């Protein structure tokens, strides 16, 4: 770019300010137009982002309602929580009453060694301990580096053999205690010994830890037991106090012996909460649509997406689903959402939800309710159809993505035009400077010639004389 540091120095007519004013006058109309277009495009991208977020928020509860078990929800209670607690998997549970008599709790086996004078210095012998728990055998090498009570306990814990070990201070000495990690008779501990010195079954050296049914050199301080309980008169035995896979979807957590009555009942309130989440997200989407495309009375203008075909298409799709009658319900007392307490406010387009009506219909006809919302043998429910509608807009090649991609392309085009404008303005500025510099030089020459002529004329003029009259 040409230097303009001395522009106007010769004539005083042209100046840097004049060049700047002419450049700005050339730049301003196009730049203003591009700024306005960019701001409008950015606003549309932001608006589509808000619609996408609201639609994704709606899709989640719709997906929950589209599952075949969406209308199943149960609650469980125990008359004696101190004996039996209960947890449920509503997708598998069914109504039922269960009389539970806990006769025995499951326990893990514990073994204790003979008492020793210390835990860290006395050698216990060397060789191999083989632990068998639940049919799994683990060999543990005991040598001079770990043949104390504490060393053997650490080696057992490091072996992950299904046994935990520790040292108990009795007050008069120390005992090694082994406990099965899992309760029940199936997890009893067997310890066989390959002693480097003497017999594998005597009470000296490493063999003092043998406990394998034939040799009991350790003391069984706690016997392994299974949980035993009667459920509606049927005896059930488990190795754990968490009793699963007895009643579908029901887990009994027993904590003491005694009796309790467990009741599993339908929980229409939990299902209504799922539907309420759908209604709330649907209404939130309507608010966003109104915000970006509705008429604003304060500004007396439409939203940035007013009249947009994609937004109209989304609205039409969702509204159509609200009044659909799924296959199989044509002659049912439950045919559409309005029949179960979900109605549209014609003034706002939002949904109104009467939970009392919904709960009543759910208890009267749970199968028809499932058909209304979810996939069934008859076909797709309303929630399933609405999920499909949402995906048409939300997918990577969906309508919202296509619109956003188009707007991003517009932003790139605007940037390209800005680059072209910058090049054109730079060229225009250089041209102005060149023209003004030439004009300035010409005027300077004219001024110089004028000064010369004036000087010559002044030289030719007669000098003033002072003659005296006689």
Structure overview:
With about 475 residues, the protein is of the alpha+beta class. It folds into 3 domains: about 30-70 and about 270-400, no CATH class; about 75-105 and about 225-265, no CATH class; about 110-220, Alpha-Beta Plaits (2-Layer Sandwich). Helices cover about 40% and strands about 20% of the residues. The protein has 8 helices and 19 strands. The protein has helices spanning about 15-65, 150-160, 270-295, 310-320, 355-365, 365-375, 380-395, 400-460, and strands at about 75-80, 85-90, 95-105, 110, 125-135, 135-140, 165-170, 175-180, 190-195, 220, 225-230, 235-240, 240-245, 250-255, 260-265, 295, 300, 340-345, 350-355. The strands form 6 sheets. It has a 5-stranded antiparallel sheet with strand order 1-15-3-11-12, with no helix packed on it. Strands 7-8-4-10 form a 4-stranded antiparallel sheet, with helices on one face. The protein has a 3-stranded antiparallel sheet with strand order 2-14-13, with no helix packed on it. β16 (about 295) and β17 form a beta hairpin. α1 (about 15-65) runs antiparallel to α3 (about 270-295). The longest helix is centred in the last third of the chain and has 62 residues, at about 400-460. It is flat, with a radius of gyration of 46 Å.
């Amino acid at each position: 770019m040409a230097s303009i540091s001395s522009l106007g120095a010769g004539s005083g007519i042209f100046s840097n300010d004049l060049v700047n004013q002419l450049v700005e006058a050339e730049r301003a109309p196009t730049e203003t137009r591009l700024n306005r277009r960019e701001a409008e495009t950015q606003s549309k991208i932001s608006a589509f982002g808000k619609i996408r977020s609201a639609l994704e928020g709606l899709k989640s509860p719709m997906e929950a309602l589209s599952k075949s078990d969406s209308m199943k929800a149960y609650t469980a209670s125990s008359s004696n929580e101190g004996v039996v607690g209960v947890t449920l998997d509503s997708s598998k549970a069914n109504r039922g009453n269960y009389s539970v008599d806990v006769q025995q709790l499951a326990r893990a086996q514990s073994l204790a060694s003979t008492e020793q004078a210390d835990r860290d210095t006395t050698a216990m012998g060397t060789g191999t301990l083989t632990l068998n728990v639940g049919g799994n055998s683990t060999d543990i090498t005991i040598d001079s580096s770990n043949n104390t009570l504490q060393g053997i306990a650490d080696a057992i814990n490091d072996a992950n053999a299904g046994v935990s070990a520790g040292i108990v201070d009795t007050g008069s000495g120390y005992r090694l205690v082994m406990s099965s990690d899992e309760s029940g008779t199936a997890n009893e501990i067997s310890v066989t010994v390959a002693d480097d010195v003497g017999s594998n079954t005597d009470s000296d050296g490493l063999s003092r830890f043998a406990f394998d049914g034939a040799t009991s050199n350790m003391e069984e301080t706690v016997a392994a037991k299974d949980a035993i309980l009667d459920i509606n008169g049927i005896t059930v035995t488990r190795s754990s106090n968490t009793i699963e896979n007895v009643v579908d979807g029901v887990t009994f957590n027993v904590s003491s012996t005694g009796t309790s009555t467990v009741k599993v009942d339908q929980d229409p309130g939990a299902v209504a909460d799922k539907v309420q989440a759908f209604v709330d997200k649907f209404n939130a989407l309507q608010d966003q649509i109104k915000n970006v495309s509705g008429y604003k009375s304060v500004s007396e203008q439409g939203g940035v997406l007013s009249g947009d075909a994609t937004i109209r298409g989304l609205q039409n799709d969702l509204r159509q689903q609200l009044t659909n009658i799924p296959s199989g319900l044509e002659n049912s007392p439950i045919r559409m959402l309005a029949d179960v307490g979900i109605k549209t406010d014609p003034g706002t387009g939002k949904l109104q939800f009467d939970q009392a009506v919904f709960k009543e219909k759910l208890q009267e006809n749970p199968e028809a309710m499932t058909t209304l919302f979810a996939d069934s043998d008859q076909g797709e429910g309303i929630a399933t159809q609405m999920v499909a509608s949402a995906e048409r807009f939300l997918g990577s090649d969906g309508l919202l993505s296509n619109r956003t991609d188009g707007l991003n392309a517009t932003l790139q085009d605007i940037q390209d035009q800005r680059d072209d404008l910058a090049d054109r303005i730079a060229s225009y500025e250089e041209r102005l400077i060149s023209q003004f510099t030439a004009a300035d030089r010409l005027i300077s020459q004219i001024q110089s010639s004028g000064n010369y002529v004036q000087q010559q004329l002044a030289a030719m003029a007669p000098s003033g004389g002072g003659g005296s009259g006689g």
